[in-house]
Fold these 3 entries.
Entry 1:
Amino acid sequence: MKNGKLYYFSKIFICFICLQSCILAQDANSLNISANGELTKPQVSEENLIHFGDLIEVDVVGSFEYDWRGTLSAEGFLDGIGFLEEPLYGLCKNEEEVAEKIFESYGKFLRNPKIVVRILDRSNRPNSILSGAVKTPQRFQIKRPIYLNELLIVSGGLTDQASGEIQIFRPQKLNCLAEVGKKISSPTPNTETRERFVAAREDNGAQFINIKISDLLTGKTEANPQILSGDIVNVLEAQPIYVIGGVENPKQISTRSKMSLTRAIASAGGLSKDADETKIIIFRREANETKIIEANLSKIKTEQAEDLILQAFDIVEVARRGKEERKIPPILENFESINQDKLKLPLRIID
């Protein structure tokens, strides 16, 4: 009999322990433990913070008179909400923080109001743009964390015109991350004021991030930043050199390092059958004038003359037998780059 009771109570004890473990596990999901062992509130992801363009709803449960739906003003305040003693700053706040502030104001004339704040629509947040020397320039609506390497992959990768550098322009206040690499956390209440925000806008507050593609390919962490809403990513194109005339494949050559005359001609397929290698003209733009430089490939091959180092935007023309020598720079309409209209780029949603 005693053994039976002991077995019964042991079962109850085990069930109790399991129940407590489940409760603690649920609490652990809603709490973080700091380095000193203290429980803290979990960090809030940037996705759940209020951004410019968001449609926000304030619902006072049981009342229609005090409900509100709208967006942020240009200064970051809830635009047009009434019954508040002073404007409510909502940019980069979470729903609970805004609800607490509204509760403080409404609680002065309503008894224990229940305030529910929701972000109804996030689709109007600023888009990120990837342009330059990528196969598919496009706009992105970012709904989850994404890094530079993944953005390049979904855009088809780099083109041959890539110079080796990437520049990221990060406008002020279009995202809720203070710095690249910092953890996302909910801003401390009352740390933002209208004066600080306006001052930041007047000071531009924009940030430029320069990245070497070689560092990105070698896996350096600092070369692979997280791309945020509103970022403009430009894969810089290499400066061109044009090789025309008596070559097999007249073309624009993208320069990433020092380009010699012989190397440029070789990159254009070499000399054609009617080429006159003794007469090569380089048109070089300097200030408001065009400088004409003559070269002789035969002498360069026999080391009787120096192999010239070309500069960006040089036009190299190899003379052809039987054709008159050009005295003025040619107009290369077919080689002109096409400016990308960023407003017409296709939009891709990252979710």
Entry 2:
Amino acid sequence: MNPTIFRSGGLRFFFFSREEARLHVHVAGPDGEAKIWPEPRIELAHDYELSPPDLKRALDIKGSGRMKTGKPGKVTSTAELSNVSTHGMWLLVDERELYLPFDQFPWFREVPIAQLSRVERPTPDHSRWPSRSTRSTIRSGIPW
């Protein structure tokens, strides 16, 4: 999952949840991507063929006040979809990442990612996906 933080001048600024502890942001342009560390000073971590003008604009964006850093926010969901492959999906639950293989949970195999990401956790031992195309509730077999 890679939520968009904001867009500016054809560049998309986003992050991957649970990628690494150091604060960073990814930037995608039409020709490539880059990874930037905004603290303690703005610094290029990796450049994956982002054009030089786009890279310069990405590095200058923090100075413009558009991207400000601060303390990490509070957790807004106690369960979230963190990754999907052809073999299964990973859920982030209470700071732990759990793998749900599709051979054990076959009803999720053909479900679109947009529906998989609607996971809800109404109680500590219960997760559910409110969708008609998935089995609506999972209770057992997942070690919360």
Entry 3:
Amino acid sequence: MLAGLLSLAAAPTPSPVAGDCVGGSPEQPFRCIYRAAFPSVGLVAQCRSDRDCRVGYYYGDPDRPTWLEPPADHPVLPKPDVIWHAATFAEVRFACGPGCRVSYFFEARRRRISPPRPQVLDVDLHRLLLAQAEGRSLAVRQIFSGREVARIDRDWAPGPLESALTTLHFDPDGRLTIIWLKGPERTPVTERISIPSMPR
């Protein structure tokens, strides 16, 4: 009962947006524009295929974007999922293999773009924090600096960390709610954890 109430209190994660797309034939690679709710600002993807894209952000002219630098181990980017967590704050998420994803964060008002962040599970927009899976640990980091503010280790159920997490979200009061499966028995455990804003 309590877990259900806590889940209702958290804001749902927005879904990826479709973007304004043209092209998609062998003669014309497709291009998608993902506009912020801010004049003449947004993101753009130019793709030769679903697995070979350039993705960037623009101010003013979408034909003159600043391209994202792909992660070192993935020299080309696939077509992105763009999630507007707020009117001017986007997550640009890419699949990088089975069970693998990487996200960039774009803050339009302050003209900031984060380095790539792997395995992001949720974001706290108010404090600009993210929760991510790092091996068998759950780490909370500042989105743009990458500095760690908390690390959570538990007797997670065997397998990838994400398979042991049934619920994870930041709450409006700044705490992190997780429902996780404990040990080989996969016993459900509910926790609300206070998360600092700055490294200790």
